[in-house]
Structures are given as structure tokens and as C-alpha cells.
Amino acid sequence: MIIYNKTKGEFIDDIRNGYIVDQIEEGFKKHHINHSSEAERRSWAYSLMFMRNVLDDEDIANDCPLAIEYQIPLTSKRVDFLITGKDKKDSNNVVIIELKQWENCSTTEKPDVVKAFTGGAERNVAHPSYQAYSYAKIIENFNEEVYKEKIGLKPCAFLHNFKEENRHNIDNDFYSEAIELAPIFLAKDVVKLRNFIKSFIIKASDCDLLMKIEHGKLKPAKALQDSVASMLKGNKEFYLIDEQKVAYETVKKTVISSLREINKLTGTNQKYTIIVEGGPGTGKSVVAIQLLCDLIQKGYSANYVTKNAAPRNVYFEKLKQDKYKLNYIKSLFKGSSSYIDVPNNFFDCLIVDEAHRLNAKSGMFQNLGENQIKEIIHASKVSVFFIDEDQVVTTSDVGSVDLIKHYAKEENSIVCSGDEMKLVSQFRCNGSDGYLAFLDNLLGIRETANYDLDIDYDIKLFDDPNKMRDALKEKNEINNKSRMLAGYCYNWITKNNPSSDEYDIVLENGFKAKWNFSNTSTWAIDESSFSQVGCIHTAQGLEFDWCGVIIGKDLRFDGNKVITDYQSRAKTDTSLKGIKTTKNFDLADRIIRNTYRTLLSRGQKGCYIYCEDKELMKYISKMLNKEIIK
Fold it and tell me: What's the gap between Cα 396 and its chain centre?
């Protein structure tokens, strides 16, 4: 999505005539994005004056197209400035420019991270050169046209206010790798930046490069499960951006420096517990797996821990296909009940994904051990918990930030948490923060949720579950990365006989389907599993390109608001076990809402929805201003 798209000459005219800010705001309105930040208005007015000065050169043709505020597909991130054209050899290029108004910053001990005043406070943020380069790599990795047609992406950063006496704080050897990949230009480097642009762009291209970037065919989204084997070999598969990068480098440095400190102190019981918070699709699992790989390569003993068997089984299968030995795989990827009798500080680091799903007791009957959080902290010198408290989906899920802190104190473990370890920007749901805000609003998870469906996320509403399945099947034929999911409102009839003629899910118009879990542990990637329906237990921790969600009768619209009904859940459902005894109906309500929030946010490119409750379907249609496909 491009907010402003004109030629260099038209851009200069808009600056000269004082139209530029209004033009950009009109672009946001055109895309139905509520954008009213006075600080950003000032930023455009000021920074773009400097860009006008940079481009005011006859050697750069006036008809070269440029763009301002380009939103990268599948993310919520925007590139500040792009200009396109051809160089002297007739090669097509796009120069990507990250603009900053900083006057100064300070170095950190974290690769590609600086400390700067932004958002009203001093914060650790990605170095502008790394930021520009990571944006370029994401565009290159997502856009098939850019890759196939060898369109050159040339990133750089322009800090037009940065004082020369402070240059050493941002332009130094510690950041040399990022700067080499994406040069940085400060206040006195206008001529150098102009020459950098002119080395790639002097005339307009024969084709519309911006439209190739804007509307080019997207490559199949890279899924974590497809990349684990390569990551374990030390290959870079994902480019962490912005707060992802800051969180990762902060966690990595904290882990390694803590281990070094502990290992120096003979006989110490000192521990460190790190808490990383983030919502759906913010990259918690990517950061967790990357941390595991880096620690293993440095010779530390580390495990990736998750209660959810589904992602572990998928990782096992993918790694076996890459010739990894099963015993080695299982020594790295563990269930959360594996640490009951493990000695104190046995592991250097335990990395816990989906920490909100941890249980108090372990075992089939949940009667073993004391508490999984305590056992994990006890077994490791450094424990790292990735958590989203809004993804608690069963009565046995006890993981919370407060409980982690409680057991950390009990185990004499120093807690590390804070803004630098929070993941905010999400990379699922086509990067649409508006869609996630819509889900929170729909489900009553955030009362003040304000949603603008600000980018092209493929949402379709179906009155007939068969039509939803047919539409989803077309998507699945692309790359086997689309699946049906459902709330747990349907009894698991085929549990002991999955090949029988019976069906678990029977809906209107002759729709029939079976639950998936009894006959495979890798339903999410099996070639023949599309016809089966996944539930929260087999979908959480995984992602798909498209998902089709069946919302059962446990979620309804009563004419005024969305309500839950725990009694409409299947009798075979154990996620609400004990509710009738404890009468903790608020917890049941929270679990049902969290379940649908998780299911409805599994798709990277789109989500198709069918509701058993017709009034809920009408309500969602009204909220989204979308017609129901009949």
C-alpha cells in the first residue's frame, strides 16, 4: 500500500506550493486509515523539505516516480521514502530511504541497536541503517516480481538533523556491517546522498517499478516450521525488524552476559528470568527459535520448551526430513512437563514459548510435580518466557507474568522485563493492526479497541460452510498452507475410529467433517489433511496462509452484545474442565473469547468465517461493512 505516489517533479511542486502534507493525509483517507498525528504532520513537512533539496538535481529526471509511506506487505511497517528509475547501465533500481529527525543518539552494546529520543522518551531502537536494510530484505523476500526481474533495492538512511560532532555515536565500526549494507547520511552529507541516489537512478524506468512493488505477486509466506532446519545450521532466514530486533538483541545479550556472570561465580545459585510479552503474530516464536539456534552454536545447553505438542511435532517432522537425528531433535524441543526432577541449574538456558499455556501440575492426570513455571526456573541458569496472557485457552493454563515473577523470586532469580522486551508490531493477518483491533473489539477483549481495516487482508463471510470450504480449498491448492479451524463445540465421535463413516462436525446444507487429531500429529503440514478440521489445541503455535474458522454456538450475539455459552461446548472438551464445580464462569467466558481470538488470527493472508449463530454473522458483517457470501 502506497500513500503518496507521484513523480519527482510533481513532488518538488507539492513541496514548493505547500501541498505535501495535505496530499499525504488525503492518501491515508483514500485508504480509509484514521491518521491524525500532529507530530507526524510536522515530521513530513520538515523531513520532506530536505528530500526536496536532495533531489533538486538535473541529473535525476523529473519523471522518475517516487513514493512516500509505503506499507510493506504482510507487516504493519511503512517505508518513509522510495524513488525509482534506471542507472547508466539501464538496470532498474529502487532507492529506499529511512528518514530520521534525530540530532543525536548513543551507542549500545547490542548489535544494530542504538539509543535515541523517540516517542517522547529515550529508547533502544534499531540502527537506521539496519532498519532500512531489513525493510529492503523483507520486500525482496515477499515480492516475486522484485526477485524475478532483478529489481535492485538500494537502502540507506538520512538523518538530516544529526549534528556532525555526534557522528561517532551512529557512524562507527560497531555498526559497520549495517552501514555497509545501507549507508547512512547525516546533515552535512546532502551531496553524498544525492550522489548515492544518482548512482542508481538518473532516468525513469520503462515499466512502473512502484506498481510492481505495490501489486507484484507475493511469494508464499515463509513459515517458521519450514525454516527451523536452516536456522539450526546458522543461516539467516528471518530479518527481525524494529522492536523485534531490539527485543532479540536485548534478550540475547542478557542471556549470554548472565551466563558468563553465573559461570564465573563457583557454587552460586544466582539465576535470571527474562519475560518477553507479545500478541499474536508479533514474532515470539521466531525470536525464541533464533535464540535457541544462536545459543547452541555458541556451545550453551539450551532447550526450546512448549506445552503445545502440535508445533513440536511439526518441527520434528521437518527436521527429520532434513536428516536430523530424532534423538537430537527431541533433546532440543521439549514439552513443559520435562523438568519435574531436573537438578538445579542443569541447563544454561530454557526458552519457553507460549508460556501462558503452562500448567501447574504435569502428567496425564495433572498430578505430578509442583508447578511447571517453578520447575523450569529451577532447572536453568537463565529462563526466557514468551507470553501473551490473552491466549489462555483452558482452565489448566496458569501462565501469567505475575506467577512467573512469583516463582522467580522464590528461586532467587533476577527478573528482566520491560518495554525493550515487548513485541508490538505483528506479521500475521497481513500486518493489519486494524484487523486484530477488530477481533479485540468483537470479542470484548479490549473495550476501547478502535479498528480501521487499514490494509488488504482477505476477510470473507460465508452463510454456507460448504462454500467456505470450497473457497479455502482453492487457496490450499497453491501450497498446502490453508486449513479449516473450529471452536470446540462438536463431540469427538471418531476419536477411536477415525476411518469410520461417522463425522464429528455436522452443519447445515449437508456439511460434514472430522476433527483431525486422532490420526496424525502433523495435521498442519500433511498433504491429505485439508478435509479435516483443526481446533485450538492443534492450531495454536502454528500459522497458515489462509484459515477458515467455524464459530460454534458457544459464541453468539444476543441483540446487544457478543456473549459466550460454555454449555454449548462439546462434552469431550476438557479445556473448560472444572467450571461447573468452581462456578468460575468469568474464566469460562475469557477462555472462549481467547480461543476464537487465537483461531481468527492464524491466517497470514486471509481469514474466512462461518457462524452457526446467524445473528452473530449479521453483526460481524455490519462491523466489517462486508456482505455475507450466500
Answer: 26
Mean pLDDT of 260-288: 83
Half-sphere exposure (Cβ direction) of 100: Cα atoms closer than 13 Å:
28
Lowest mean pLDDT of 143-152, 268-277, 565-574, name the range. Answer: 143-152
Identify whether residues 312 and 373 lie together within a single domain.
Answer: yes
Cell output for 218: 507475493
* Contact between 100 and 113 (Cβ < 8 Å): no
Going from the C-alpha of 205 to that of each of 59, 93, 154, the distances in angstroms are 15, 9, 15
Which three-class secondary structure state does DSSP give residue 323? coil
Domain with 471, as residue range(s), is: 431-629
pLDDT in tens, 391-404: 889 999 999 999 99
- Residue ending a domain, choose from 169, 189, 215: 215
> Are residues 298 and 336 both part of a single domain?
yes
Distance (Å) of CA 292 to CA 130, 279, 351, 392: 22, 20, 7, 24
Residues 207 and 264 in one domain: no
Distance between CA atoms of 380 and 431, rounded to whole angstroms? 35
Q: Which residues contact 239 (CB under 8 A, 6 or more apart)?
A: 133, 134, 137, 138, 141
255 in the same domain as 156: no
How are beta strands 271-278 and 380-387 bridged, if at all?
A: parallel
Can you give the CATH number for the domain in which 391 is found? Answer: 3.40.50
| Lookup: cell for 185 | 547520511
Q: What pLDDT score was predicted for residue 319?
A: 85
CA–CA gap between residue 563 and residue 443 (Å, rounded)? 8
The owner of cell 505483528 is 426
Angle in degrees, CA 72, 76, 79, rounded to 5: 45
Alpha carbon distances (Å) from 264 to 246, 414, 492: 27, 17, 54
Let me know the angle formed at the C-alpha of 333 by 327 and 338, rounded to the nearest 5 degrees.
95
Which DSSP category does 490 fall into?
S
Task: Please tell me whether residues 122 and 186 are part of one structural domain.
Answer: yes
| pLDDT tens per residue across span 19-44 | 998 888 888 888 767 665 777 788 88
- The cell numbers describing 401, all together, are 507474568
On whether both 170 and 300 belong to a single domain, the answer is no
Predicted confidence at residue 267, as pLDDT, reads: 62
In this predicted structure, the answer to whether residue 449 has a pLDDT above a threshold of 60 is no
Check: CB of residue 109 under 8 Å from CB of residue 174. no
- Distance CA(282)–CA(277), nearest Å, equals 9
